[in-house]
Amino acid sequence: MSKVELFENERASGYDQFVEAWIPNYRYFLDFLPKLFWDSDPSEILVVGCGTGNEIQQLVAKEKKWNVTGIDPSPEMIQQARQKLEGYTNVRLIEALVSDLEVDRKYDAATLLLVLHFLEDNGSKLELLKQIGDRLISGALFVMLDITGDERMIRENLKILRLLLPDDITEEQIDHRLNRIQKELLHVPEDRLAALCVEAGFEAPVRFFQSAIYMGWMTRKK
């Protein structure tokens, strides 16, 4: 697999402020995330790349008493998640990779938010999706959020993203970040993401959310 992207030092400590500033409608996405699971009402949810625990916080704040396992390879991110989620007995946080999780423990839902664009499409994206699928029951709901699009779509949506950013971000910061998104991050077109999901044993995903370059997808384990 590709080198794992670890969030450390200021990347970890400033993560929450970063995503709030750079992902338009991020808070809106998190607010409605639990509603996506209400119909299936899963008992065990796996949150891959849980970071500081933002989506877990939303999932456990509702009346539903879902058991949530969050996994992330970054010790600093997991530490922040532990502080944020202290006192929740239905949350398990693990500093590890998905491949480290026991295969015989199955989950009936999973999320993968803002992770895939750090992995190369050289088998690494597919491997992660397969590893997640191997730990889900048949029919399990799987929700993804990622930077998605072909070269033209990314370029045009970055122009829109620039218009939506907070006023206190400097032009120098904006230019640096948008250049990194376009040239360094490993996003794929929509049809490629769908093909990877199907190859990994999921149904063809449905896009239900988009905010500039960020797209949300839903699918189920076959």
From TrEMBL:
Residues 45-122 form the Methyltransferase domain. Pfam families: Methyltransf_25. GO terms for biological process: methylation. InterPro entries: Methyltransf_25 (IPR041698), SAM-dependent_MTases_sf (IPR029063). It comes from the Bacteria. GO terms for molecular function: methyltransferase activity. The keyword Methyltransferase applies. SUPFAM superfamilies: S-adenosyl-L-methionine-dependent methyltransferases. Keywords: Methyltransferase, Transferase. PANTHER family: TRANS-ACONITATE 2-METHYLTRANSFERASE-RELATED (PTHR43861). This is Class I SAM-dependent methyltransferase. It comes from Sphingobacterium athyrii. The lineage of its organism: Bacteria, Pseudomonadati, Bacteroidota, Sphingobacteriia, Sphingobacteriales.
